């Protein structure tokens, strides 16, 4: 499904807001993976294929299991391929002892993963939806995050990676839409990473799996099928804690992550028509985050806008905003703007009202530039 | 397996104590068949093969789960397979279940409480018909010395806290037998995930008094680098994962550890401890279920000491304690007298053998009593009777009971006792003195190990903190070297 909607946009691998808004891709059980099969060869001679985000995740998991015999993939319903198809083919190829279903128990999944990782394994755990990660909150916050520190580096669970689909999807309501990243950004000892596109997802996920620290990796479920781009077939990693300027500009800096970047990109394009030059930064890793890249950009543009789907109050945008005001106060020409989700539970019928849409961002860009 | 049958009149008695399945088997076979099967196989290398095999054979022929009739005390779990045809059984993804015309609810309890396995009576004599693993003089003396050492550690560290020299302490008084005897029954390769009232396991494995003192003082020789409260011990070389305060979080982790041991085909299991209160946590149930489903070699040892801080077990659960929770998860379980070192030792030896040979979790509920306060932050006389504490301290003392047994064997004397106590006391006082004099960890340890590397935010914060310290040195403890 949604195959006709899929197209590649530039090097971002992003989809248009219109496509995203018209797409209805929230499905919990899909019979078979749909992947495109166009193969191209890059200038470096490496093969790449145009694939969607879940296929990119799937490729990363294949590589992770193939390159490390001590790697394991587990979670609810992962054996048959997962409700989003991210684990397709893994159990067949690597066997039931390395790719397996767990009982429906998030604290059990993460606790089990910590123990497995503590024994020197790569434990790649899936929490089926980020909305359901909270039963595992204690295991993540009090156990995984402090495992190394509290033991004086005698023990660690750095091999643990927790993957979880997050964010809006068009009709997910309260419990299939949330963006809980800020809760985890308040926890020293773990990393939080969110990719924006298939190419990013594959490279970042492999980095997370191989990183010597526990990582929470949130996957933008809206993009699982909609975002398609050329993804190298080989094993590659993208650096953590390094933000990327994905669009250069001079008038205002926009900072975001994950699926929201496609909306921000649309706003940047619209703003350009009004002669406003926007610089767009993908933070990628939320903790420990790359402050320097944002600081350098804001020193250039003098203005900052942060956007995320999660509720505005206490969101990670607040942290970015405060940090940049601390460092760039005299250079700022306008208050830092935040275009985020509302401080309500994530709604169903009212989702279009709740969301930090393109026009909300566009308005904020204009009022910040014209402050 | 050197199991020692002491005047065993009936093998079935002892099996009944150890195998929940026995009841089913017994009823099905009316005894006779089973007896012959068992007597032939019991002495074999794996004494539980019989149960698995015959149970599997039995189950394969079909089974029926009947609920009890109102008022009946015993749940009859299985009956003959005559009724098992298409019309009378339901095939569903979880297996084949017989239909019944009786609307019977399974009773909330079996009526009779699960008995408690013990070897020694209160006077330290082996009770009639008991079966237990023989303990050599050398091991027995070492076990007894370990229990006494734990007692002395508790007394002296407790006093040290009262003097204000360490910030906190938590005793194991009353639970010395569970600590030491369970540790003695394990192999050093078994990975231990403690709660926090099991320092005796670490002691048994060779963690020195100096190492205990270093942790309690949080000095620069503490492996935890002064980051955690006293008693949060951990030692990589002893396969003893660092204690964390949250209750029961270690239990699902133990299942993951055990899965790794299983994948590596190690001759070892994971062993994890909890209190009675811990069994109310979600993590307990998560752990038992995932361990059972994943078929991993892990021993869950519950120290049911009657009290979770001030909450008595009567306000903790309505079940017959903890042991009965195992069966619901498909886990073989036993209840033992936690104040009987030989019973703990024997049951953990057997649990370990079954866990590893059969790749399965085992639940052990050890009944005991927390003779001390919950911790130095607690005064338990505010919520429980002093004479109750005294009864357990005196009449049911696990160390005294084991000593009587060792003395009756001629392995221990009053002279040995006073020599041991004075030696340990001396060593411990020296260790404390040295730990107290040893410098605190360097300030840099505040920032290291949060991550494997040192991210910029922490570098920045360390730099800023150091500038503040220079400006306001009076705000900071002078004994932490910069």
UniProtKB/TrEMBL annotation, chain A:
Residue ranges constituting the Transketolase-like pyrimidine-binding domain according to the UniProt record: 51-226
Cofactor(s) annotated in UniProt: thiamine diphosphate
SMART domains, from UniProt? Answer: Transket_pyr (SM00861)
Q: Which reaction does it catalyse?
A: N(6)-[(R)-lipoyl]-L-lysyl-[protein] + 3-methyl-2-oxobutanoate + H(+) = N(6)-[(R)-S(8)-2-methylpropanoyldihydrolipoyl]-L-lysyl-[protein] + CO2
Mind telling me which Pfam families this protein's record contains? Answer: Transket_pyr (PF02779), Transketolase_C (PF02780)
Quaternary structure note: Heterotetramer of alpha and beta chains.
Q: What is this protein called?
A: 3-methyl-2-oxobutanoate dehydrogenase (2-methylpropanoyl-transferring)
Q: Which organism is this protein's natural source?
A: Cinchona calisaya
TrEMBL record, chain B:
- Reaction catalysis annotation: N(6)-[(R)-lipoyl]-L-lysyl-[protein] + 3-methyl-2-oxobutanoate + H(+) = N(6)-[(R)-S(8)-2-methylpropanoyldihydrolipoyl]-L-lysyl-[protein] + CO2
The domain of life for this entry's organism is: Eukaryota
GO CC terms of this entry: mitochondrial matrix
Q: Which UniProt keywords apply?
A: Metal-binding, Mitochondrion, Oxidoreductase, Potassium, Transit peptide
Chief place where the protein resides: mitochondrion
CDD domains, sorted: TPP_E1_PDC_ADC_BCADC (cd02000)
Subcellular localization is given as: Mitochondrion matrix
Q: What class of enzyme is it?
A: oxidoreductase
Gene Ontology terms for molecular function = branched-chain 2-oxo acid dehydrogenase activity; metal ion binding
Q: What is its EC number?
A: 1.2.4.4
Would you kindly state one Gene Ontology biological process term found in this protein's UniProt entry? branched-chain amino acid catabolic process
Instruction: List, alphabetically, the Gene3D superfamilies matched.
Output: 3.40.50.970
* Domain Dehydrogenase E1 component as annotated: residue spans: 147-441
Instruction: List, separated by semicolons, the cofactors it needs.
Output: thiamine diphosphate
| Subunit description | Heterotetramer of alpha and beta chains.
Cross-referenced PANTHER family: 2-OXOISOVALERATE DEHYDROGENASE SUBUNIT ALPHA, MITOCHONDRIAL
As for family, the record states: Belongs to the BCKDHA family.
Any idea what this protein is called? 3-methyl-2-oxobutanoate dehydrogenase (2-methylpropanoyl-transferring)
Species for this entry: Cinchona calisaya
């Amino acid at each position: 499904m949604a195959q006709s909607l899929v197209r590649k946009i530039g090097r971002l691998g992003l989809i248009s807001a219109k496509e995203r808004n018209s797409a209805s891709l929230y499905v919990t059980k899909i019979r078979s993976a749909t992947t495109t099969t166009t193969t191209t060869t890059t200038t470096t001679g490496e093969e790449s294929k145009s694939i969607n985000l879940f296929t990119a995740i799937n490729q990363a998991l294949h590589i992770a299991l193939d390159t490390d015999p001590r790697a394991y993939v587990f979670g609810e319903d992962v054996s048959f391929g997962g409700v989003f198809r991210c684990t397709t083919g893994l159990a067949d190829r690597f066997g039931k002892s390395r790719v397996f279903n767990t009982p429906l128990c998030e604290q059990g999944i993460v606790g089990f993963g910590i123990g497995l990782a503590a024994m020197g394994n790569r434990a790649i755990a899936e929490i089926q939806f980020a909305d359901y990660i909270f039963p595992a909150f204690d295991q993540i916050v009090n156990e995984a995050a402090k495992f190394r520190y509290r033991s004086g580096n005698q023990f660690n669970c750095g091999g643990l990676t927790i993957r979880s689909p997050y964010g809006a999807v068009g009709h997910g309501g309260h419990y299939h839409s949330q963006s809980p990243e800020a809760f985890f950004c308040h926890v020293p000892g773990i990393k939080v990473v969110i990719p924006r596109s298939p190419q990013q997802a594959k490279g970042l996920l492999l980095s997370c799996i191989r990183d010597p620290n526990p990582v929470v990796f949130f996957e933008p479920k809206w993009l699982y099928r909609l975002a398609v781009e050329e993804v190298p077939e080989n094993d590659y990693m993208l650096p953590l804690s390094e933000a990327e300027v994905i669009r250069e500009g001079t008038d205002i800096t926009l900072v975001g992550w994950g699926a929201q970047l496609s909306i921000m990109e649309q706003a940047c394009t619209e703003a350009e028509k009004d002669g406003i030059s926007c610089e767009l930064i993908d933070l990628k890793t939320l903790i420990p985050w790359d402050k320097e890249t944002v600081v350098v950009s804001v020193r250039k543009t003098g203005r900052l806008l942060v956007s995320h789907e999660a509720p505005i109050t206490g969101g990670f945008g607040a942290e970015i905003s405060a940090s940049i005001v601390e460092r760039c106060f005299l250079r700022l020409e306008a208050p830092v703007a935040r275009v985020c989700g509302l401080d309500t539970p994530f709604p169903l019928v009212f989702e279009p009202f709740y969301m930090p849409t393109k026009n909300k961002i566009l308005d904020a860009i204009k009022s910040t530039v014209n402050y | 397996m050197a199991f020692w049958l002491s005047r065993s009149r009936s093998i079935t008695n002892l099996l009944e104590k150890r195998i929940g399945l026995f009841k089913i088997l017994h009823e099905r076979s009316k005894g006779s068949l089973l007896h012959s099967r068992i007597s032939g196989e019991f002495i074999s290398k794996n004494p539980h093969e019989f149960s698995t095999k015959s149970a599997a054979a039995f189950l394969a022929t079909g089974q029926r789960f009947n609920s009890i009739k109102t008022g009946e005390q015993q749940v009859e779990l299985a009956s003959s397979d005559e009724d098992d045809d298409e019309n009378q059984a339901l095939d569903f993804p979880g297996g084949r279940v017989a239909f019944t015309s009786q609307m019977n609810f399974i009773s909330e309890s079996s009526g009779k409480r699960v008995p408690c396995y013990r070897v020694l009576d209160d006077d330290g004599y082996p009770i009639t018909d008991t079966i237990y693993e023989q303990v050599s003089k050398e091991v027995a003396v070492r076990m007894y010395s370990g229990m006494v050492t734990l007692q002395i550690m508790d007394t002296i560290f407790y006093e040290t806290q009262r003097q204000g020299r360490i910030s906190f302490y938590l005793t194991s008084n009353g639970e010395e037998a569970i600590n030491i005897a369970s540790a003695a029954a394990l192999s050093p390769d078994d990975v231990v995930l403690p709660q926090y009232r099991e320092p005796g396991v670490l002691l048994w494995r060779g963690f020195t008094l100096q190492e205990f003192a270093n942790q309690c003082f949080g000095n620069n020789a503490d492996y935890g680098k002064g980051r955690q409260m006293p008693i949060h011990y951990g030692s990589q070389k002893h396969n003893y994962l660092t204690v964390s305060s949250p209750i029961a979080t270690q239990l699902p982790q133990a299942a993951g550890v055990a899965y790794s041991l299983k994948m590596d085909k190690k001759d070892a299991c994971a062993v994890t401890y909890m209190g009675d209160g811990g069994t109310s946590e979600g993590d307990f149930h998560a752990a038992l279920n995932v361990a059972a489903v994943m078929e991993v070699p892990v021993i869950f040892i519950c120290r049911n000491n009657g009290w979770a801080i001030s909450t008595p077990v009567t306000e903790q659960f309505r079940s017959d304690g903890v042991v009965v929770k195992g069966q619901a998860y498909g886990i073989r379980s036993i209840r033992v007298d936690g104040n009987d070192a030989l019973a703990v030792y024997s049951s953990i030896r057997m649990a370990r053998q079954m866990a590893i040979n059969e790749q399965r979790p085992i639940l052990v509920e050890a009944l005991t009593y927390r003779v001390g306060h919950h911790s130095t932050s607690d005064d338990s006389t505010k919520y429980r009777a002093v004479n109750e504490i005294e009864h357990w301290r005196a009449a049911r003392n696990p160390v005294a009971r084991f000593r009587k047994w060792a003395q009756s064997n001629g392995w221990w004397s009053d002279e040995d006792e006073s020599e041991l106590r004075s030696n340990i006391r001396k060593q411990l006082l020296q260790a404390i003195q040295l730990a107290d004099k040893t410098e605190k960890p360097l300030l840099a340890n505040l920032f290291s190990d949060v991550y494997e590397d040192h991210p910029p935010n922490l570098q920045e914060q360390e730099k800023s903190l150091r500038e503040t310290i220079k400006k306001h040195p009076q705000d900071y403890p002078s004994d932490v070297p910069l």
